[in-house]
Amino acid sequence: MSIIEEQIRELLFLRLKKLGYHLIRCKLINVYGKKTLQIMTERIKDKKMEIDDCVFLSKHISTFLEVHDPISSSYVLEVSSGGLARPLTMIDDYKSFKDSKAKIVLKQKFLGKKTYIGFLGGIDKNGKILLETEEHEMKFNFLEIEKANIDLDWSIKQNQAN
Q1: Residue 156 above 80 pLDDT?
Q2: Contact at 8 Å (CB) between 84 and 152?
């Protein structure tokens, strides 16, 4: 995460929480000189996000960022939900999405590879993230994880079943 992304995250995290939203991810993308600020969020109460939520937050965030001006040049603001392949960005996500299938990419190889897919088992008493793959029951420290997402194929099947 860049310094600007971290500053924006700090500016927005508590503000969004007071409005009833959880900030999932803040990402600033620069493609061919065009900057886009992506804010991924969800309602705290039910982990959902409707188009009305995106419109409401877009207006609120853009007004707030105009005052604090963390990005020196022009940019496009995108506010969205976590989607079906929602990223797991905080340790609490691993509790909230217990029993969900996830794809975890580690910073370093473990047992010969960096990527594992399995079902989240929550967090143990020592704060380790539990993952049950077809081969292993695994435990990771949050800081060992480079990135993690809910498995898209599993998520689509779950939504079709409901």
Answers
A1: no
A2: yes
C-alpha span between 147 and 107 (Å, rounded): 8
Read off the pLDDT of residues 83-108 as tens digits, 9 standing for 90 and up: 888 999 999 999 999 999 999 999 99
Identify the residue whose tokens are 């809910």.
150
Domains located in the chain, CATH noted: 3-80 (3.30.300.70), 91-161 (2.30.30.100)
Q: Considering the entire predicted model, what is its pTM?
A: 0.79
Q: What is the C-alpha separation between 146 and 35, in angstroms, rounded?
A: 24
> What phi and psi values does residue 8 have, to the nearest 5 degrees?
-65, -40
